[in-house]
Amino acid sequence: MSEAQVSSGSAAKLIVTVYAKDRPKSSQADSICTVADPTDALLLAVSPSLQKLETKPLTACIRQEIYSLRTPPPTPDLGQARLHDAITRFERDRKAEVVLDAIPSSSSESPPPGHRPVRLALFDMDSTLINEEVIDELARTIGKTEAVSAITARAMNGELDFETSLRERVTMLRGVRSDVWDELKGIVTIAEGARELVHALKKMGVVTGVVS
């Protein structure tokens, strides 16, 4: 999260990215994924003077909202705003995740105290950089897709801890062919915008990595 240092009478832009947690499988219709509008929550958590400027659908499940943030000092602390009851309630009720960032009104303004530029970005792989869950695809090759997917769903719902769910799923994969990876190369697809995001981060000097 970052803060914007805004002088009296100037306007910064508040960039709000909303990720829907209930993401459809790649074969399902885009309409299944609904991204809620966070404006009401933001008016309470950040500033009542926010004015929406633009809405940018980035993917079927990710939307970016751009607001005008006109406020005298002190600038709203977006780190604290992110923890506001209105935001946490929005995320819980709408099954979404909200990321807040702000762009100062001019490039000459200095960054806020304590601000550190991003130097490292780590991503998950399955259903993030790629559209598929590889462990489910491995299970498909031996006819155990439903059983493995059910354990994955229980883990994502908090019913199983990660280690237990991983051990149960891996146990079910006994019998998978050693050459299955050649088959998966033709199935796995890069998520929309992933290449562009990584390219932009590298251009900014950010080191990128995958933790999966």
Helix/strand layout:
Elements lengths: L10 E10 L18 H7 L5 E7 L4 E9 L7 H4 L3 H10 L1 E8 L16 E4 L1 H5 L4 H7 L4 H12 L5 H11 L7 H5 L9 H10 L3 E4 L2
Parallel strand pairs: 5-6
Antiparallel strand pairs: 1-3, 1-4, 2-3
Helix pairs in contact: 1-3, 5-6, 6-7
Q: Could you characterize what this model shows?
A:
- This protein is an alpha+beta fold.
- It contains 9 helices and 6 strands; from the N terminus they run E-H-E-E-H-H-E-E-H-H-H-H-H-H-E.
- The protein has a 4-stranded antiparallel sheet, covered by helices on one side. A two-stranded parallel ribbon has the order 5-6.
- The N terminus is likely disordered.
| End-to-end gap | 23 Å
CA gyration radius, whole angstroms: 21 Å
Q: What would the principal axes of the Cα set say about the shape?
A: elongated
Could you give the count of β-strands? 6
Beta-strand fraction estimate: 15-25%
Largest sheet: 4 strands, antiparallel
Q: Look at the structure and give the mean pLDDT.
A: 79
Order of helices and strands: EHEEHHEEHHHHHHE
Short note summarizing the structure:
By secondary structure, the protein is of the alpha+beta class. Helix content is 33%, strand content 20%. It has a four-stranded antiparallel beta sheet, with helices on one face. Strands 5-6 form a two-stranded parallel sheet.
